[in-house]
Specification:
two-stranded antiparallel ribbon; alpha+beta; 189 residues
Length: 189
């Protein structure tokens, strides 16, 4: 665990920015957290080639910090959505997705109000051309541009995603698709 007021990151293989409501998300989701003292170290970790996952609020923080393109804005229906969601794995060549078959349908829970991924046409074209769209929603629940549920950085070492794979690791929770996600990471290291 690294506290937001710290200024250094210990020697680690993977940094995870988890979901949760940072600073109450009173301004824009992730905007205040993106200015925390630790974020300079997160950016350096990224610049030095570190692996990072941003899940839900963590994804919002990564976009606010400009580590990933785009922005997360309120869902098109202006309501909080919490449900199991089918996703399409659109790129299985990353550390995070190597255990999935390409174009596989998986079920991962979502829980967000500001989960609609928005980006410009130029940004969308760049993501598509460079295979940086990692997950897409089936039956897009929030109005995300291009049905996008998760994207990677240019070097494929950073993944931002709104769905919560940590909530899909036991059949009693409704899905085990998250296990494949985490096993992909472990196998990749």
């Amino acid at each position: 665990m690294i506290w937001h007021k710290e200024t250094t990151i210990p020697k680690i293989d993977l940094l995870v920015l988890p979901g949760g409501f940072s600073y109450g998300d009173y301004l824009r989701c992730g905007a205040i957290a993106a200015k925390s003292p630790i974020m300079n170290a997160v950016k350096k970790f990224y610049d030095d080639g570190g692996f990072i996952i941003g899940i839900c609020n963590g994804f919002q923080i990564l976009t606010e910090a400009k580590i990933l393109p785009g922005a997360l804005i309120p869902n098109v229906n202006q309501k909080f959505i919490c449900k199991d969601q089918d996703l399409l794995v659109t790129n299985n060549t990353t550390l995070f997705t190597s255990g999935f078959k390409n174009n596989a349908t998986i079920s991962i829970p979502i829980a967000h109000h500001d989960g609609r991924y928005f980006l410009t046409n130029a940004e969308l074209q760049e993501l598509e051309q460079n295979e940086r769209i990692i997950f897409k929603y089936k039956n897009n629940p929030n109005g995300s541009t291009g049905d996008i549920a998760g994207v990677s950085s240019k070097n494929n070492r950073v993944l931002g995603m709104m769905p919560h794979p940590e909530r899909a690791v036991d059949q009693d929770l409704g899905s085990v698709s998250g296990l494949t996600f985490f096993r992909s990471i472990i196998t990749g290291f």
